[in-house]
């Protein structure tokens, strides 16, 4: 590790401990040349998860896109931002657990719809209407019938 003060590459580790969130190791170091102390963090290098779109294009997974869609679906609904963030975090965890490097956009959309169905039925229908690109009222009514059947169980 290069000393940020003098540039020397020789140091000694004085203390190591897990960061407060547990996703990094915090190391307190001392430069052997100038004697100054500095802190470094060691984290796991994660491979970027790619989303495979319907047309075959690939783009980096973006949590903000999921949150944006959920925010639109939940607009003017009694759903807190905290709940929406929890949904996004849950989706993100499930994707990381189930998929290694690539996930189809269809799988992401289905996960969002599953979570929205249990969070808020109106938000679910709003999201589904955009996601499934309803062409007419019959498709919309079909989705509502399915939702009512699930709610009745």
UniProtKB/TrEMBL annotation:
Keywords: ATP-binding, DNA-binding, Metal-binding, Nucleotide-binding, Repressor, Transcription, Transcription regulation, Zinc, Zinc-finger. A zinc finger (unnamed) spans 3-34. Pfam families: ATP-cone, Zn_ribbon_NrdR. InterPro entries: ATP-cone_dom (IPR005144), NrdR-like_N (IPR055173), RNR_NrdR-like (IPR003796). The keyword Disulfide bond does not apply. Its cofactor is Zn(2+). The keyword Zinc-finger applies. One of its GO terms (molecular function) is zinc ion binding. Residues 49-139 form the ATP-cone domain. One of its GO terms (biological process) is negative regulation of DNA-templated transcription. Binds 1 zinc ion. PANTHER family: TRANSCRIPTIONAL REPRESSOR NRDR. Negatively regulates transcription of bacterial ribonucleotide reductase nrd genes and operons by binding to NrdR-boxes. Belongs to the NrdR family. This is Transcriptional repressor NrdR. It comes from Velamenicoccus archaeovorus. The lineage of its organism: Bacteria, Pseudomonadati, Candidatus Omnitrophota, Candidatus Velamenicoccus. The gene is nrdR.
